[in-house]
Each structure stands twice: as structure tokens, then as C-alpha cells.
Amino acid sequence: MDLLSILSSVLDENYLPNEYPALAALEAEWTVKRPFDGLRVLVATPIYRNTMTQYRALLAGGAELLVGLAGMNDGEVVAALKEWGVSIVTPEEMHEAESRGEFVDLVLDCAGPFAGLHPKIGFVELTRSGVQYYKDSEKPVYVADSGIVKRIETSLGTGDGYFRALEKLGYGKSFEGKRLLVFGSGKVGSGIALQGVRRGCNVTVVTDLSRSDAQNSATSASETQEAMPAGDFSVILLQNGVEVVDCHDYEVVSSLIYTSDFMVTATGVKDALAVPELQEPLLSTTAVLANMGVEDEYGEAIPAERVLNDKGPLNFILEEPTHLKYIDTSLALHAALAELLVQENAQKLANPDKNGTPVSDEVGLRFPPQELEQRLLSIAIQDGVVGPEVCDMLGVVPSEYDD
């Protein structure tokens, strides 16, 4: 049995097509177009069963697939992929391969561990946290974490994953009336806060009110609703009764830490809570502490064992850290931007300058075309099980995304 057949067998046994409509649409299209024929494609998304949907779509498009091993992964899935003949590679192994003159054509990275490579065509970075590694890239780099598509994963999926992880650890008998303290008002923090409201928690968000977007959070919903786009979480938090406080008001924040039942960091900033005024409350509180960011947001003074999952993102204790229905559009955009790089490269080669030399790449960071994001979003809303949640998040009705 070939690899495509093996992956299909696993995926068809565990998922319904409406859980990954965007990737399914790309796979059907690429089976005919074969945009990656003859190309070596390195994919470094975290290795879990649900990310096999992305592998299958790329394989259907003709890619010679390498899977990058970095960060958090499911060991059983890694072992299975190796058994099926998939090339599992580390950054160190890829650098060694380059020293022998072996290069890939495309790198689909996640948080930047493969940023030091030299692909022939370019990169696609999945996360905002990985952008810092690409600011001086000599190749084109598309950033998938930029618009509405990524909000489905970070705002809906990550919040859901936080509570599923708490439930797995035995904290989920009832969240009704529990006091939840969330640090960070971005996509992840707001998503956790809204999930908390849905589960009956009394939720407070701690954020930096000196920032203009956070200041909007502190004003009334009626004052800001008309001026802000649909789906803006500053408004949605207020509409759902979430209290927002300033992270610099240490007296208030300390009191909240002492009195909360659950506390989670989602600022995206390393050592965000490592300020002297908060150390005693953090060490003394009876709250269940967790982190949902890539970095250690608590700082060295707070022992790893004091925080669930030793300060690692809590949802990564799960077999599926984020349900497939929430990451489908992110993975689809990640892969679709790789196809766009291939198309741009072909156009460059087909239109050389007057001396017959291919025009140089437009290097550095770039963001997804809006029409591509809208296409994938429309598919998710119209064909996906997650459609109603996405519409609720954006404050729209499905008909607004009809073709």
C-alpha cells in the first residue's frame, strides 16, 4: 500500500470530510493540477494525527514530502510515519544535507526551527512567533498567521483545547461560577476568555491598557462597536461580560491572582509575569496555573512544577492539542501559500530580464492575498462543521460568504 493510501485509511477512520473542508478542497484540486510535481517539500507543522491531512494534500499535489521534527509532537505518530517510509528530519540533519549540496524546494515552517535553511523557492511560516526568525531572510517568506483564517485556530480552537486539557487532568467537573484569570487579550487569550464565559466562569482578562487596541477593550461596547470591524475581540469580550484590567495595576492584579480558581497566560511574551510585584502572589495562590503560549511567560522564579505541563502549552498534553475542525483552514492556508510561491517562481522564470536572467525574488516577509484567505474561509463556513462557530465569532451570517 502506498503512502497516500495509508494516510487515507487512517484519516477516513478518524475524521469526517466536513472536519477538514478546506484541505479536502485543495487535495481534490491538486490531484488534478499536481502543482508540486518534482519538488521536495519540507513540512514542519507539529506531528499529530490530524496534521496528516496536510501531508495527504501535499502528496496528492505531487510533493516529495519530508516531515520536520521540532518542538512538541506525538511520538506514536512520529514512529508510525517512519514505519510507513516518511522521511522525518531534524534541523541539524537538514543543515548537514545542505552541506552535501542537498536542498529542498519549499519549507513550510512552524515557529522557525528550519529558518536557517536555503530552499530553492522559499518559505511559508505558520505562526506569528516564528516571524522573528525570518526578518532578514534572503528568500520570500509568506506568513500564514496574519488574518481571519488564523483566528479560527487561535481564538476558537486554542480556547477549546485549554478547557479540554483541564478536563483531562480532572478539573472539569464543573466550571460554573469559577473565577478564571487570563493574561493576554490577543486571539488566544480572548478565545480562552470566551470559552470560559460559555462554560459559566467569571472571567477577567489582564492586558496592557497603554496599547491602543487594549484601550478600546476598556471602553464601552456601545461606544466602540460601530468603529470596529466584525469579529474584533475587544468588543466581543465586553459584550460577554468579561472584565478587563490593566497589567500595570499590580495591586489589582495581585488580588486577582490570590482569589482566582484558574489562571492562564496567553500573552505570547517570554517572562511576561516576571515582575517583582507578582512573584509572591504567584507562589502563594491556590489557583491552577497554566500557560498557553510558546514561551515561558511566568519566569524562572516560578518553578516549572508549579504550572501545569511544566509551563509548556497546556493543550499539548492532548492527543489532539487543537481539534482538526479548528486548524483545517490554517493548515490549508499554509499549504496554499506554498503553491503560490511555486506559481510566482514559475512566472519569474518565464519572464526573464532583457539579458535572459530570471528576475530576482522579492525577498523577505509578505502576507497572504486577501482573496485566498476569503476563499478558504468561505469553504470552512459553507462546508465545515465549524461554520456556525466561525460566523458567531465574526458576527456575520453564512450568506455573506456565499460565492
Question: Can you put this structure into words, describing what you see?
Answer:
With 403 residues, the chain is an alpha/beta fold. The protein folds into 2 domains: 3-149 and 323-401, Adenosylhomocysteinase-like (Rossmann fold), CATH 3.40.50.1480; 154-317, NAD(P)-binding Rossmann-like Domain (Rossmann fold). The protein contains 15 helices and 12 strands. It has helices spanning 3-14, 21-33, 52-60, 75-83, 91-99, 148-168, 187-198, 212-218, 221-224, 233-239, 250-259, 276-284, 324-350, 370-383, 387-394, and strands spanning 40-43, 64-68, 87-89, 106-109, 122-125, 140-143, 179-183, 202-207, 243-246, 262-265, 288-291, 364-366. The strands form 2 sheets. Strands 3-2-1-4-5-6-12 form a 7-stranded parallel beta sheet. A 5-stranded parallel beta sheet has the order 9-8-7-10-11, sandwiched between helices. Strand 7, helix 7 (187-198) and strand 8 form a beta-alpha-beta unit. Helix 8 runs parallel beside helix 10. The two termini are 38 Å apart. Mean pLDDT is 89; it is low at 212-232.
